[in-house]
Design goal:
The structure holds two protein chains of two kinds. Helices cover 20% and strands 22% of the residues of chain A. Chain A is globular, with a radius of gyration of 22 Å. Chain B has three domains: 34 residues, no CATH class; 145 residues; 120 residues, no CATH class. In chain B, 65% of the residues lie in helices and 1% in strands. Chain B contains 19 helices and three strands. In chain B, a hairpin with a 2-residue loop joins strand 2 and strand 3. The longest helix of chain B is centred in the N-terminal third of the chain and has 34 residues. The chains are: A alpha/beta, B mainly alpha. At the A-B interface, strand 21, helix 9 and helix 10 of A face helix 1, helix 2, strand 1, helix 3 and helix 19 of B. Strand 21 of chain A pairs antiparallel with strand 1 of chain B.
């Protein structure tokens, strides 16, 4: 049984540089990276020292708050360097890969014979658990909580996002195995949402939801809100569909598959395409000979929520996409390309720019310029247009800015993640970094109320 | 434009911290960011941003005010000539060039004083606080002259602007932080501080007050009354229309022949500089609504509120003012101007979608109520909007509370 949810509010930002439907393989990078900084709020405890040799699936560090949650090496080789920042905070573990790529073998049983606790232990031991996130707080799920459901979105609606039904077209069996495993964890409350006529509609052991509408229709937060919203004191878990397939592969073979398929996108990529890479690969390997222009920004993830990276950085743990767009660090004369220009090159949700006149097929090249300076909130009603929640985005943001804990709780902070506010941040006239403010609000809630 | 950019680059070191003209940085910043969108890039969160910024938004409001300004200039010029010829029935469309020029000479100084004083104070606060000019005053500076009577002394405009910017806005923290509308604060300040200069029959036509003082015979028998002034007299024993005493049973008829609906709609009647033409206001409304800068909810509900109050008064009846057709209320005085440009100020209006409808409705409703039933003030629009500005947070509070209650209810049912 599938129920259809139509998302009325939102915005599809039409960017140039969508990946073509072919998948290329690249060899494993000389160095790969596992970065504790990818996991918000995590305090890592190292298991290995510099120079130690590791296999794919060997624990590199664990979560100080829960020793069972392991973070494993995506490649076999030696630990080359543990990069620390101020106060000896560990930010990166660089692993020099060898040519053999030996995998650690885990003991797996048939899913029908596996208990929930056994499965949890396996997922934590094999390093797949960190890919399961929880709401509220948008952090790695706490396995000791009882989730009221596990949510999986089979599509990503963000700009230039990878098409999972294409990536996972050959791996439907593994996806089904992964969903079966989630079904054991959630005791029958697994929600899978898809676009109409999706290949994932034939998956079993899940509750199907069909979602229509523009971005953020594919965001898990939007779907949870419309399917079964989170109340105070409740927890839901969510996991990316590609990681569901990884669970399936683990159960099938007993080894961790550190490969993943990513989309290489953006207007500054010469030939946007899909790549099979090793998790934690370096940006320079991913984008080798494939970048136009000099003055560009490398983003691990999509343009709305991704992380800025330098060319010698590495792709983030949760990201299935790399985007390259031009930097906007130049003055723009106000009458030509600046604030009072005609603005046919700008993509705007407001009618102050002629975007609405242009055909839907027109794709835009957008740079990183903020297109204006930061101001106080003046314009009202614009955030609401792209925020398909029964939550008042401006009021919640203001509560977060003012550290108003009661206000945040009342206005629905438990339901949201920073990524849900990405479009609000995009359209906002004030140029305030709303995602950052929401994250600070969530941190405050985590320290005071959880 | 490369040379200008190069020049700015060259000058920039002098104005940043430690430079020769460090304290003039806000002025430099303002001019530089006016000429060029700065090279700021995103550092956190979304890597790309929408093209809109506050400058473009405010510029759109100014654009929407242009029809009111141009018509206001012509109308002021027309009535100035009517005064000098002591003829209220001067043909409206004669000698258009001369009238426009006359109007320009009268209106432009008011605009210049408003912007000069306001921007000066804004820069001062910018220098104290160390930030460039925030764009809010660009609109307020245009709204203030348009709400003034034509004969207002310039020093009053300056004083009112200073009061509005300092007390109305800067002490609250500047653009986006004010509780009540800046332009209406200026208008209210003058209204209560200098009531004789802001109401009565002399001030609405340029030159009339001077002429009456120096040479009363020249304008003997000439009335400078406005539609609202006449209507206010309907509430008393002696109803007058354009200076003539009329019988109360024919008062509405003679009123509508003096101020026909078409003339009132077009704005060919005496009144504040920019407010008389409902037509020009509606052109502005079209721009604001189309671009989404002005809230359709507020504008429509404001008109609805005024119209319903008008109908209610008709139903009560009993004297000529109460019997005035309800639609007349929407096209005379500053009703349309207030609904379209004042009530929609997003900072001081309600911020929630439902709140905007309630806010607008009561704004219009109270405007007509004050206008008709209050003997002290011939115009009620600016008082009604100021009152609703103060009430807007309370309206929003209940809308937000309803949202919170929905969430709590969900928790209880699960």
């Amino acid at each position: 049984m599938s129920n259809t949810i139509s998302i009325q509010k939102g915005l599809d930002i039409r960017l140039l540089g969508e990946a073509t439907t072919e998948i290329k393989d690249i060899p494993v990078s000389r160095t790969v990276c596992l970065s504790p900084a990818d996991f918000h709020g995590l305090i890592p405890k190292m298991v290995v020292k510099e120079g130690a040799s590791v296999k794919v699936g060997d624990a590199v560090f664990f979560d100080k708050k829960n020793e069972k949650v392991k973070f494993v090496s995506p490649a076999s080789g030696t630990i080359k360097e543990i990069v620390r920042a101020e106060k000896r905070r560990i930010v990166q573990i660089i692993i020099e890969s060898d040519s053999k790529q030996i995998c650690k073998k885990f003991k797996v049983k048939k899913i029908s014979d596996t208990t929930k606790d056994e499965l949890l232990d396996l997922l934590m031991e094999s390093g797949i658990w960190p890919s399961v996130k929880q709401r509220p707080l948008d952090i790695i799920a706490d396995p000791s909580n009882e989730p009221k459901g596990i949510f999986v979105s089979s599509f990503d609606s963000s700009p230039l996002a990878p098409d999972y039904s294409f990536i996972l077209g050959e791996q439907m069996e593994q996806v089904q195995m992964g969903l079966n495993a989630l079904n054991v964890l959630a005791e029958g409350k697994v929600h899978l949402s898809s676009r109409p006529n999706s290949a994932f509609a034939k998956m079993e052991n899940v509750k199907h939801h069909t979602i229509t509408g523009s971005h953020p229709a594919g965001n898990i937060g939007t779907q949870i809100h419309h399917i079964d919203p989170v109340n105070k004191g409740e927890f839901v878990w969510c996991i990316n569909i590609q990681d569901v397939a990884a669970i399936g592969k683990l159960l099938q073979s007993g080894t961790v598959d550190a490969k993943k398929c990513i989309a290489v996108t953006g207007s500054e990529v010469s030939s946007p395409t899909y790549l099979n890479i090793h998790a934690g690969s370096s940006m320079s390997d991913i984008l080798k000979d494939n970048v136009k222009g000099e003055n560009v920004r490398y983003i691990s993830g999509n343009v709305l929520t991704g992380d800025q990276k330098s060319s010698d950085d590495y792709i983030g743990y949760y990201h299935n996409q790399v985007t390259v767009i031009p930097e906007g660090n130049e003055y723009k004369f106000f009458l030509t390309t600046g604030w009072l220009g005609l603005g046919f090159d700008k993509f705007s949700n407001s009618r102050l720019f002629p975007t609405f006149l242009l055909p839907k097929s027109k794709k835009f090249v957008l740079d990183t310029n903020t297109n204006g300076e930061e101001r106080a909130f003046v314009v009202t009603g614009e955030l609401e247009k792209v925020f398909p929640f029964d939550i008042l985005p401006m009021h919640l943001t203001k509560a977060a800015i003012t550290d108003d804990i009661d206000g945040m709780e009342n206005l629905g902070i438990y339901e949201v993640a920073p990524e849900d506010f990405a479009l609000c941040e995009y359209v906002c006239t004030t140029k305030i970094n709303i995602q950052e403010k929401i994250r600070q609000g969530l941190d405050l809630i985590a320290s005071e109320c959880m | 434009m490369k040379f200008l950019e190069k020049y700015l680059h060259k000058m920039e070191p002098h104005f940043i911290k430690g430079g020769k003209y460090e304290k003039w940085n806000p002025l430099f910043e303002t001019l530089a960011t006016f000429a060029f969108t700065p090279k700021l890039v995103t550092t956190k969160g979304s890597h790309i941003r929408d093209g809109v910024d506050l400058k473009r938004t405010m510029m759109t409001v100014i654009l929407a005010l242009i029809p009111c300004l141009i018509f206001g200039i012509y109308n002021t010029g027309h009535w100035e000539m009517a005064v000098s010829e002591a003829n209220r029935n001067l043909p409206y469309f004669d000698m258009m060039g001369a009238k426009f020029l006359n109007g320009l000479i009268i209106v432009m100084p008011v605009v210049v004083v408003s912007y000069g004083v306001g921007l000066g104070i804004e820069f001062l606060f910018g220098m104290i606080r160390g930030h460039a000019l925030h764009e809010g005053f660009l609109v307020s500076g245009m709204l203030i002259p348009l709400t003034m009577p034509a004969d207002v002394p310039l020093w009053m405009v300056g004083l009112a602007t200073a009061f509005a910017v300092i007390i109305g806005k800067e002490i609250f923290g500047g653009t986006g932080m004010n509780v009540v509308n800046i332009a209406l604060t200026a208008r209210a300040f003058l209204f209560f501080a200098y009531p004789t200069s802001m109401s009565g029959d002399k001030v609405w036509m340029s030159g009339l007050s001077d002429k009456m003082a120096s040479n009363p015979e020249a304008v003997d028998g000439f009335s400078g009354a406005t539609a609202l002034g006449d209507l206010a007299s309907f509430m008393s024993d002696k109803a007058t229309v354009a200076g003539e005493v009329v019988q109360s049973n024919v008062a509405v008829q003679s009123f509508s022949s003096e101020y026909s609906a078409l003339e009132s709609f077009m704005g060919m009647i005496p009144g504040s500089i920019g407010e008389t033409s409902t037509m020009a206001c509606l052109i502005g409304a079209a721009i604001l609504i189309f671009t989404g800068v002005g809230s359709l909810r507020i504008i429509l509900s404001f008109f609805a509120g005024g119209f319903i109050m008008g109908l209610l008064l008709n139903a009560i009846g009993g004297n000529p003012y109460l019997d005035l057709p309800a639609y007349y209320h929407l096209i005379i005085g500053g009703f349309a101007f207030g609904a379209i440009f004042m009530a929609t100020d997003p900072v001081t209006a309600s911020q929630t979608a439902t709140g905007k409808i309630i806010y607008g409705f009561f704004g219009g409703f109270l405007a007509i109520m004050i206008r008709v039933l209050n003997p002290a003030y011939p115009e009620g629009v600016f008082l009604a909007i100021l009152f609703m500005n103060v009430m807007a947070p309370i309206i929003d509070h209940y809308i937000v509370q309803a949202n919170i209650n929905r969430r709590l209810k969900r928790l209880k049912t699960t």
